[in-house]
Write a structure and sequence with these properties.
This protein is an alpha/beta fold and about 200 residues long. Helices cover about 40% and strands about 15% of the residues.
Length: about 200
């Protein structure tokens, strides 16, 4: 298996078990993982407080921090994002030429308001979500899928049963779905392994 670099962006709640466990699984698969903390250690237990904090930082600052976290990377790398982190990952994927893959966990940003009109054909996409999740904006998802497919980049959508939004987060018992979390990790690892086999590995 080829070693890859995976950069992970957290949800609006901050860096929690979901991000850490995903990074740990991929590291155990032999990859280098980097979880970007855009909150400087702040972690939240409820979405309303977290969203208010994110608003105080502002979208521009969050995207700036997302990009600053990968300025040292030159070799091909994969970006992944949980919920709000999906928008961060999309922004990095369209602004950093070394990105070779994108994985989105329960979150797709609004590419229209982000000013993204084209998608790099060399960046395949994998999206994970539960259809019963009340959180996603499906107009955003449809718009993003159309954008990716128009570029001829690969687009894979994986649905899970249940209604959990952050279903990898065990501290949220009303959302946590451990079996689906394990399936999500395995699917992510498969995409990343395929990228390595296709020759996108670091030099």
């Amino acid at each position: 298996m080829v070693h890859m670099i995976i950069v992970i962006y957290h949800s609006v709640l901050g860096v929690r078990f979901g991000e850490k466990s995903t990074a740990g699984y991929l590291a155990d698969c032999g990859h280098e993982t980097r979880v970007v903390d855009q909150y400087d250690g702040q972690v939240f237990d409820d979405f309303q407080t977290a969203e208010e904090y994110a608003l105080t930082l502002g979208s521009r600052k969050l995207h700036q921090r997302a990009n600053e976290a990968v300025t040292d990377l030159r070799d091909p790398f994969v970006v992944a994002g949980f919920s709000m982190g999906g928008a961060m990952a999309i922004g990095v994927a369209t602004s950093h030429s070394a990105v070779c893959g994108l994985v989105l966990y329960a979150g797709v940003g609004d590419t229209a308001t982000m000013g993204i009109q084209t998608w790099p054909a060399s960046v395949p996409v994998q999206v994970h979500y539960t259809p019963a999740d009340p959180t996603p904006n499906y107009d955003w998802i449809d718009r993003f899928e159309s954008l990716v497919r128009a570029s001829d980049a690969s687009y894979e959508s994986i649905e899970y049963p249940g209604s959990g939004h952050l279903f990898t987060e065990r501290a949220l018992p009303d959302q946590y779905q451990p079996d689906d979390a394990r399936a999500l990790w395995a699917s992510s690892a498969r995409l990343i392994a395929d990228l390595g086999d296709a020759g996108f590995a670091p030099h």
